[in-house]
Amino acid sequence: MSLMKRFGRRLAAFGAIAATACAFAPAVEAKPASPALWKVADADTTIYLFGTIHLLPPGTKWRSPTFDKAAAGSDTLVVETDIDESDPSATLGELFKLAISPGLPPLAERVAPEKRAALVTAIQKSGVPAAAFDKMETWAAAFLLLAGQFKDLGLDSGSGVESVLKKQFVDGGKPIGQLETNAEQLGFFDTLSEGAQRDFLEGVLDDAAATKDEFGQMLRAWSKGDIAGVAKSFNADVGEAPELMDALIARRNANWAKWVKSRLDQPGTVMMAVGAGHLAGDKSVVKLLEKQGLKVTRIQ
After folding, report:
1. CB of 168 closer than 8 Å to CB of 71
2. Is the CB of residue 81 less than 8 Å from the CB of residue 278?
């Protein structure tokens, strides 16, 4: 299975925008967790780097005394992109600005014949009229259909790391920043080739049992702070999807590493919480910072 086909299920840990279209089912068994946490610092600035899962089963335990101390001591929270989960209409508005294009073939014609029955089922589960999908670009249709996968996995946007952290910082009267606007993050998908978009859509239609198994492996690796496991889970078969890796991982990681280095010029303490896949592997933000001569210390 190619990286692109696996990618749909990984948006729960890798693409926060997917949360805007989703409503989720209840809990799976909660287990203690200790996800990886790093620190980059100079004389008057500390930046914590925390890899997240954007959507989690309700009740998932991921906090620790080390993490809580770092979060409590941070002046600012910075996330990939800031979504108002109580009213995602603004984000959905940005999606539909990019999503609708004239003259598209019916969505059923954009997947392999053997995937069409699964497409019909996914559309019915979504509650969105089938005719509406025919007007959408392929990546956008895939986004909306992800809601069904996430519901089957029992994931909850309110239990995701960013949601919990944003509430903590808002309640504490602390600011929340973002590395990308909603439009910028969606734009990475909008610029994918049609072939890549279709592969992405077919990945969303993969077998539910396989989806659950792969998400479980990813969640276990993240929970244990197993960076090698996270890297393997997120970044396997890179050669099979170089366009995806470049647009959604490599370029963004490079941008974020530049942001971290620049942010060190301002005093203060920042908690930067981004999808776990961005902090694992040879092209991760961590590795890029180290290549720039910065000391990155793992503290959990």
Report:
1. yes
2. no
Instruction: At 182, list the tokens.
Output: 């909603």
DSSP state of 16: G
Find the length of the chain. 300
CB 160 within 8 A of CB 53: yes
**Residue 58, pLDDT score:** 82
Q: What is the pLDDT of residue 255?
A: 95
Q: How far apart are CA 151 and CA 143, in angstroms?
A: 13
* 49: DSSP letter: E
209's tokens = 């049992």
Integer Cα distance of 243 and 254 in angstroms? 15
- Smallest CA-to-CA distance from 189 within 47, 72, 17, 55 is with 17
On the 0-12 / 13-18 / 19+ scale of CB atoms within 10 A, 69 is: exposed
- Partners of 52 in the beta sheet? 275
- C-alpha to C-alpha distance for 247 and 150, rounded to whole angstroms: 23
Coil, strand, or helix at residue 205?
coil
Per residue in 180-194, pLDDT tens?
Answer: 988 888 888 888 899
pTM of the prediction? Answer: 0.84
Q: Which residues pair with 50 in a beta bridge?
A: 37, 273
Q: How many CB atoms lie within 10 A of CB 194?
A: 12
Extents of the domains making up the chain: 3-20+31-298
CA distances to 106, 193, 213 from 91, rounded to whole Å, are 25, 23, 30
Helix boundaries (H) for the chain: 3-14, 65-72, 89-99, 116-126, 130-134, 138-152, 161-171, 182-190, 194-204, 208-223, 227-235, 242-245, 251-263, 285-291
For residue 15, what pLDDT is reported?
Answer: 46
What's the pLDDT tens digit per position in 62-107? 999 999 999 999 999 999 988 776 667 778 788 888 888 889 999 9
